[in-house]
């Protein structure tokens, strides 16, 4: 079974590459396309790729993910997160390819005090979240067989993410200040990738939108604390309010996702974020020493 992976050089794309390299999911024939191999904003290129081969699935790992930059690079963020996604959706539909697309907790405004279900009203409060929500609509409106997985606070040993930022900052600083008034759930990209592979291997026809994050709840401060403890780094960590940290984009104050639907549909047992963080830190240390 052939699977096209777009945006393959990013964090999630690299996670799939690493799984394929380790011989996991041998029955799946992955075709990895980085941004230079396949620009998803080029509709002709997307059409050509999807008709050139018999792809059963396309996993879209491409995205404009710099939340602050999206505020002043509106056109580029829209082009990638909406137009590019629409290009994939239209052409997946034509070639009868199932589209697996990744969305975010940042489609929510953060004013809830209970975890967001798939049916909760999306009301993004920053440009990135707005484009991601419009990207979801582009999928729903243009391809009949799709899975949208909304995830949150993705991190791993690959690409750029909060865990790696903390580990790189630590040797250069005596003190690190991290916000404690944004609550969500860190998600290890490997857990998300394994869940996507499970959906594919089951040949599931339960198409639709699903939330997926690790179990548990944390602030970015809690996450940073666990990273430093897990990597035995002795550093002064200061809890601060978001107002004390300069950011162009506003972030939701609470973006915990309710995962009942994906757990019930696929019989999933999701690891707690602290357990997955230990696995990620081990993987990071194997690469970086
Ligand atoms: N990171 C997070 O915390 C979260 C991410 N998500 C979503 O998950 C998905 C994957 O995220 P993640 O792996 O972290 O993101 P990354 O930013 O690590 O990867 C995105 C990839 O998209 C590629 N890309 C850029 N422009 C194009 C283009 N025109 N055509 C094809 N590919 C392109 C980038 O290429 P290049 O490297 O060359 O720029 C990069 O490799 C995204 O949709 C994101 O919105 C959801 C929730 C949380
Ligand atoms: C580096 C740093 C960040 N922070 C804060 C800023 C921000 O509120 C929070 C997280 O910072 P980041 O910029 O790493 O992450 P951020 O861009 O907020 O992360 C989001 O990315 C997109 C792509 C998503 O889809 C979301 O799910 C979420 O993961 O931590 C500090 O307080 N101190 C620091 O030293």
UniProtKB/TrEMBL annotation:
Protein name (database record): dTDP-4-dehydrorhamnose reductase
Protein keywords = NADP, Oxidoreductase
- Function according to Swiss-Prot or TrEMBL: Catalyzes the reduction of dTDP-6-deoxy-L-lyxo-4-hexulose to yield dTDP-L-rhamnose.
Coiled coil ranges (UniProt) are none
The terms under GO molecular function for this entry are: dTDP-4-dehydrorhamnose reductase activity
Lineage, uppermost ranks: Bacteria, Pseudomonadati, Bacteroidota, Flavobacteriia, Flavobacteriales
> What pathway is this protein said to act in by its record?
Carbohydrate biosynthesis; dTDP-L-rhamnose biosynthesis
Highest taxon, organism lineage: Bacteria
Question: One Pfam family name from the record?
Answer: RmlD_sub_bind
User: Might you give the EC number(s) for this enzyme?
Assistant: 1.1.1.133
Which chemical reaction does it catalyze? dTDP-beta-L-rhamnose + NADP(+) = dTDP-4-dehydro-beta-L-rhamnose + NADPH + H(+)
In the record, biological process GO terms are: dTDP-rhamnose biosynthetic process
The record ties this protein, via InterPro entries, to: dTDP_dehydrorham_reduct, NAD(P)-bd_dom_sf, RmlD-like-bd
RmlD-like substrate binding domain: from which residue to which, for each copy? Answer: 1-284
Q: Which organism is it from?
A: Flagellimonas maritima
Instruction: Provide the Gene Ontology terms for cellular component.
Output: cytosol
Give the UniProt family note.
Belongs to the dTDP-4-dehydrorhamnose reductase family.
């Amino acid at each position: 079974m052939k699977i096209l992976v777009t945006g393959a050089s990013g964090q999630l794309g690299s996670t799939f590459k690493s799984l394929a390299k380790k011989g996991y999911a041998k029955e799946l024939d992955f075709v990895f396309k980085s941004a230079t191999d396949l620009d998803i904003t080029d509709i002709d290129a997307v059409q050509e790729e999807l008709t050139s081969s018999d792809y059963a699935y396309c996993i879209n790992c491409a995205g404009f993910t710099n939340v602050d930059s999206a505020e002043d690079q509106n056109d580029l963020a829209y082009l990638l997160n909406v137009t590019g996604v629409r290009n994939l959706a239209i052409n997946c539909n034509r070639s009868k390819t199932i589209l697996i697309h990744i969305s975010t907790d940042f489609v929510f405004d953060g004013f809830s005090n209970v975890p967001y279900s798939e049916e909760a009203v999306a009301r993004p409060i920053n440009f990135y979240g707005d484009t991601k929500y419009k990207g979801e609509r582009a999928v729903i409106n243009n391809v009949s067989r799709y899975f949208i997985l909304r995830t949150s606070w993705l991190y791993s040993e690959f690409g750029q993410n909060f865990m790696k930022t903390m580990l790189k900052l630590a040797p250069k600083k005596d003190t690190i200040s991290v916000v404690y008034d944004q609550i969500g759930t860190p998600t290890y990209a490997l857990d998300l990738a394994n869940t996507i592979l499970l959906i594919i291997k089951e040949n599931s026809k339960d198409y639709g939108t699903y939330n997926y994050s690790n179990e548990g709840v944390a602030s970015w401060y809690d996450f940073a604390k666990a990273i430093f403890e897990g990597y035995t780094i002795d550093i002064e960590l200061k809890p601060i309010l978001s107002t004390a940290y300069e950011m162009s984009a506003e972030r939701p104050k609470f973006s915990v996702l309710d995962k009942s639907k994906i757990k019930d549909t696929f019989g999933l047992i999701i690891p707690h974020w602290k357990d997955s963080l230990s696995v990620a830190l081990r993987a990071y240390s194997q690469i970086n020493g």
